[in-house]
Amino acid sequence: WGMGEGFNKGLLQTGFLGAILVVNVAQLASQVLASLFPIPVINNTLMRVLLNIMLFIEASGVVNACWPLTWLLDAMTGLPKDPFWGDDAVNTPATGIIDRKKSMGIPMQKGVTPFDLHQPESEYHVDYTTKVSYI
């Protein structure tokens, strides 16, 4: 149809144009409409019902239960650990995160991968000391 194989494979078959359409039409257009006309949007019966449903879901705490749900799925499926964990010769995304934390001075727990679901909170309880010398 005249557009070429690169256009067909790069844009049409990857779904990139569909993602752009969803972002522009489904998300941004409704936000722009609601910011331009807030009272008519809230007074709209359909939008009011949708708003009440969204507020109910938020108040129920289901959205805040993502970590327990993740732990449950991890326990049910038995996901394996990173096969390269502990091997410093292999450059994986996990080793990149560890190197970055070490360069920033953030402490790391032994035996815990950066992608492990059960992260200890020791990095939030860091004692910072300042050395002061008098001249």
Q: Keyphrases for this structure?
A:
135 residues; mainly alpha; 6 helices; 0% strand
Q: Describe the biggest sheet? A: none
The general outline is extended
* Pattern of helices and strands: HHHHHH
Gyration radius, in Å: 24 Å
Q: Note the total helix count.
A: 6
Ends apart, CA distance between termini: 79 Å
Question: Uncertain segments of ≥5 residues (pLDDT<50)?
Answer: none
The overall strand count is: 0
Strand content: under 5%
Oligomer: single chain
Structural summary, described in words:
There is one protein chain. The chain is mostly helical and 135 residues long. The protein is built from 6 helices and no strands. The mean pLDDT is 77.
How is this fold's topology laid out?
Elements: H1 5-12, H2 16-36, H3 38-43, H4 45-60, H5 66-77, H6 93-104
Outline of the structure:
This protein is an all-alpha fold and 135 residues long. It has helices at 5-12, 16-36, 38-43, 45-60, 66-77, 93-104. Helix content is 56%, strand content 0%.
